[in-house]
Amino acid sequence: xxxxxxxxxxxxxxxxxxxxxxxxxxxxxxxxxxxxxxxxxxxxxxxxxxxxxxxxxxxxxxxxxxxxxxxxxxxxxxxxxxxxxxxxxxxxxxxxxxxxxxxxxxxxxxxxxxxxxxxxxxxxxxxxxxxxxxxxxxxxxxxxxxxxxxxxxxxxxxxxxxxxxxxxxxxxxxxxxxxxxxxxxxxxxxxxxxxxxxxxxxxxxxxxxxxxxxxxxxxxxxxxxxxxxxxxxxxxxxxxxxxxxxxxxxxxxxxxxxxxxxxxxxxxxxxxxxxxxxxxxxxxxxxxxxxxxxxxxxxxxxxxxxxxxxxxxxxxxxxxxxxxxxxxxxxxxxxxxxxxxxxxxxxxxxxxxxxxxxxxxxxxxxxxxxxxxxxxxxxxxxxxxxxxxxxxxxxxxxxxxxxxxxxxxxxxxxxxxxxxxxxxxxxxxxxxxxxxxxxxxxxxxxxxxxxxxxxxxxxxxxxxxxxxxxxxxxxxxxxxx
Length: 481
Ligand code: N7H
What we know:
By secondary structure, the chain is of the alpha+beta class. Helices cover 28% and strands 15% of the residues. The protein contains 17 helices and 11 strands. It has helices at 9-12, 30-40, 47-62, 80-86, 101-104, 106-114, 129-132, 146-159, 229-232, 256-265, 279-291, 309-313, 338-342, 346-349, 378-383, 405-413, 472-479; strands at residues 19-27, 72-78, 137-143, 169-178, 245-254, 366-367, 370-372, 391-398, 440-441, 453-454, 459-469. Strands 5, 6, 7, 8 and 11 form a 5-stranded antiparallel beta sheet that branches. The radius of gyration is 22 Å and the shape is globular. Delta-meso nitroheme (N7H) is lined by residues 188, 190, 192, 194-197, 250, 252, 254, 291, 293, 338-339, 342-343, 365, 367, 391-392, 394, 405, 408-409, 433-434, 459.
């Protein structure tokens, strides 16, 4: 069984959030930091803590008690540079050694593997200067309101002596994320419902809805069955490095008016049954085919040409699809649609003969992102141009960055020939949401699957880093003193 009191809460259950701070910091006084950390550890919310919080909210609702339940959650993660600064040997973390994305850091990986736009001299023109610096760690604070977050931030600042001459940390940047208001809550800024499909975990999840089968805990957690490091050597993970997870953070800006403008200018004339569409319907279908779901969340593999809000809202049906029977067909869902690219389901698991199945369990990631920035203004809608920064604070957990986040971005989203085997004569093209490179895809027009549509980038990466989110024991035994 998993030790839920030892695992940081964001990894398996997600911290409770309406709003969230990511506080990126450097360690300025190692000896003091390791002492301060000891006082900080009790603030860390574990998986067990999140489950207790959820129960408290349920009880409050059941008993129809008045007022709000204030909730918050704090987690901490460290970069490889952070461990170097602390003088802690982290070779038990990165199974890929010096080549592991965790050791290389995202700043370099963005250029060599992720495909972020780069200058010839190896600089990243779009990146925020804060992320061009070395970052040692990040505090995640999430909660029900800004007031709760500010209070927690202050508590943390006091522990680490922020504002005093021998403070042990220095804040690099704090980024605030906010769930969108009203009906758009849980929808990302392009308007699509997010957070529907995350992996379920053997030995942890008790409710398993129809959909992709549960994965071994080690796909997400270090030191458990399914952690690829154990294939190298069963004793690869020292004690302090188990029950942790790698966190990939990406600061992704979304150009929403430009995205909307693209849909307006390229409406599909007919659906896959040959039925003529009004321009708004054609634009809506185009957007749904780029993502692989309608804005409601309904999967187009199940509801290809008309939104189905009841399907979207039904957890027993909204993730129950495999792209089955769609070998060599983009009629229902384009090969490159965002959800098909990032979780190809039967495209790999039931490929056309003579290929045998390829398991994609090891490619699953736990997504924990949150939106940032304001709603669209009237002027932005009128001009079709982004005037205010907004997007997604993308965050995902996995036991291997090489197999998880990096692989999905590099070998799937940015690869025009993925998924393979079944797509000739046309190539699928790039992921229209996150793909980097020559942004072109086929399959958007269900009646002319080979037709290519070229599109600008609607998502611009402006920074990020790779972190390791240690267990409570790891924090106590090895990182704090
Ligand atoms: Fe994606 N979007 O709004 O278009 N994503 N994503 N993502 N994403 C998903 O099924 C989006 C990004 C995955 O199991 C949905 O929960 C946006 C990155 C994976 O079926 C929507 C951005 C990476 C899945 C979006 C963005 C991924 C997924 C459907 C950036 C990894 C699950 C909701 C701004 C490299 C696939 C859902 C599955 C789903 C959107 C980023 C990966 C609506 C706007 C960087 C694995």
